[in-house]
Each structure stands twice: as C-alpha cells, then as structure tokens.
Amino acid sequence: MAPLNASTESKPTDVAAITLESWSQGFMMGALVIMIGMTLANMRRRNLLHKLILLELFLVLPNCVFIFFNPPVWGWYLSSTATLLITSWSLHNVVSWMKSKPFLEKRGRRIYIYTVVFAQLYWIVELYANFAYFNGGHGRLFNTTRPFEPLFRDPWWIFTTANLFWNIRYRYSLTLGQILRISPRFAVLLFSMCLSIVFIILEVLAVTPVLSVGGINPYWKFASVFKCFTDTVILDDFKSALDKLSHYRMNMINNVPFGSDHTGTGTHSRWYTMDQRPRAATSSSERAVLASTEHVEHLKTGRAETASSDKSRTVALPPAASIRGAIRHKDEGSVEFIEHA
C-alpha cells in the first residue's frame, strides 16, 4: 500500500517520489484495463470463478489514481480505496484456493480457506491503522502493522505456486520445455507466478531497513499485477488446464494427428498445439472425435495396403496332383523321393 514514511499531513512533494508513484500507478492501471478486457472476452457467464476474477480486477482500479488528489481528499481517498484493494487481495487468495482445490485433499482445502478467513482479523486492524495514519497523524500503529502485511497476504499464493510446480513435475511428468512447446500460454502463467514472488520478496525488503526506496514502495504494485495476470491468462482451474496439456502430449506420443489432410498419394498431417486449434473443430470433444476417426481410417487403410502387398508376394504352390514322383523301397527299408523333370 502506501509508504511507511510518507507525510501524514499531505502527499509526498519530492519530484522523484511523485514521479515514481505516478508511474507505478499508471502501470498498474493500464495493466488492469487490459486484463479486464481479456477476462470479459474469454469468461463464461455462469462460471463463478470467472466472475470472481473479474471482480478482483475491478476492486484494484480505484487505488490507481489517488496521486491526483490533494489533502484532505488525498488521505481519505487513499484509505478508502485501500479497503477495496485489501478486499481484492483476499479475493485473490479465494480464487487461488478454487483453482488449486482439485489438487488438495479435504483437510488441505479446509486449512487453506480457513486461514484465509482468519487473516481478515489482521486486515481490520490494518485498515484502522491506515485511516489513522493518513488522516489523523497517528502513525505508531501503522508503522507496527505495515511490515506484517506480506505475511497475511502472500503465503497462500506462494503455496499455490509451489503446489502447482510440484503437480506439474510429479503428477503429470511434464517438463518446462514440454509445456513451452505444447502451450506457451501456460508457460507465461508460470513465468508470471515466479515474477510475482520476486516482487513480493523485494517488497518485504523495502518495508524493512534492508532495502531503502526513499519513501515510495512500488514493488507491491508489480506483485499485484503479475498475480492478477496469472488469474487472467488462464481463467479455469489449474487441473483442467493441466489435463488438456496432458491430453495433447499423449496424442503426440501416440502419433494421433489433428487435422490430417488425406490425399490420393498419402497422408499429410499437421500437428496442433493447445493454442493452435483446427478451424473445423470448435470444441475439444469434436477435435477428439475427429482425431479418433481419422486415426482409425488411417489404420484401416494401412492394413488393407499391407494385406494387398502380402498377397502379391505369396508364392503359388502347385497342386498335389502335379507333383510327379516315385517312391522306391530299398532293401534297407529306407524311403527315397525321385523327382521327374
């Protein structure tokens, strides 16, 4: 959120601080507008997860413009929009829980969501401290609670990222190279997850004496953007996306082509990845039927050609009546075949 050592009476006046804060707010605003458009274009109306992701993005928007106001509106607007921002952070954890739920056991799912709910007690105290700091000049409580903000916001996201990587490696036996070839979109999701954690670490260092940022902390904005981007780039839960990846990988291993063009001289196959779908098939079920039908026809054609070639290579044996020979019994009792030309 806001810097720890900002003025309690007015917004920062230093040119460098104002420039950095304005740029970071503009960056977050532009990224959110693009992600909202992506979500609206790809979401399904009756899907609750998609609606929550869209709501998560809209809740962050008002906090991106508080730099344009002057005191006393500046302090009230900053603290009011911080309430929406914190709500968006908590909603992001709920979205992460919904996306990771298929990978968790019943006990794990309960621990995940219950801890998210219990963390709201801290955010109630944090909101009061924020109002007191920016509107009344009482900064002691805010200076005490602010360093703990990442602890009550990001552990669930870090666990979600680690859990996803673990399932990719050990449950689906996929490598990063395979994911990049099959679905670049999913590779972008993993890269955004890693970037968000990098900026979370930088934010933790910035709210402590380890890293001095001169009163402005833009790192939480970068972390929020990349966390929201991971929700937007693939709207469905992680298991559904990974099941599709695994399906395409197995088709490639089994040499099942998607969108084969049969001609009189042979078969020309075009391989399609998860993000490159044949125009003739609009759904995954239609593509599966298309692939299965073409594969069976290809096998039938191959068997017919093999049978025809085997038949042409068969040696015609003469009938038994055409074999002319004589059997002569010798005194020793042996039998001898005599061929007549």
From TrEMBL:
Transmembrane regions: 22-41, 48-68, 74-91, 111-136, 156-174, 186-207
Protein name as catalogued: Uncharacterized protein
Top-level lineage group: Eukaryota
Keywords for the protein's UniProt record, in alphabetical order: Membrane, Transmembrane, Transmembrane helix
Parts forming coiled coils: none
Signal peptide: none
